[in-house]
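Recall that a protein's primary structure is simply its ordered list of amino acids. Everything else, from secondary elements to tertiary packing, is in principle encoded there. The following example makes that idea concrete.
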Amino acid sequence: MNKEILKKREKLISIIEKYDNLIVAFSGGVDSTFLLKIAHEILNGNVVAVTARSSLHPERETDFAIKFAKDLGIKHIVIQSREMSQPDFVANTKERCYICKKMLAQDLLKLASEMGVSDIAHGANMDDLDDYRPGFKAAEEMGIIAPLVDAGMAKKDIRMLSNKMGLDTWNKPSMACLASRIPYGTPITDEVLKKIDRAEQFVLSFGFLSCRVRYHNEVARIEVSPGDFKRLFDDKTRMAIISKFQEIGFLYISMDMEGYIEGSMNRSFYKKQANIIA
């Protein structure tokens, strides 16, 4: 492991050591799992993991978070998030992530106050600064700290260190909430989220490591790694997916020829911004 990554790890440790206690917003993804493990090693019983449960997040992710915290003996609280009760969020504007993150931050701050915990951390990393991330802005405004950013850690650093630490999440595919599969302006409903979740879970059941099912009303647009194209088009697999997706409620099933691209649904936002500037 190179000196630069080890230096970042030492910086992260020095950052966390400054806190007497800490709440970690824990989704069970690569970044928050790494952050929680490091915080637990440093603060031991003075770190609390908090996971938000809602229809936005696949239940398998919540189950993983619960098991991980339990196995390490970390105090873990699962709360019900409130974003689906917020009309501005359900309307699915470009600020949906800002609204969601702000509401979650409010709930975490309230919980921290009740528990006497001084600070709250989330697992944002340097790569999150390169895309349109209004949720990061909301967290920053609400005083939620980002130790991985402060330590200068990118996703590749976190994966490498996670592997070194023996964390199963080191090669786990990135996971965004299910609302990220829905184009801005299309209302977010529990029914749509369930359709997306069922469709993705079915594709993953064939052994694909990553998958996105982008929702376009009657059309499901499947994204998998280009290396998985051949497997996806195996006749048996293809016909099973078509049958299942039609059962779920999609009339048309397509595959994105570019394959899985993180943040691809933000393209429409960038295009509109460019048109405004022009």
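Strands lie at 22-25, 47-53, 75-80, 120-121, 212-216, 219-223, 252-255. The first strand starts at residue 22 and ends at 25.
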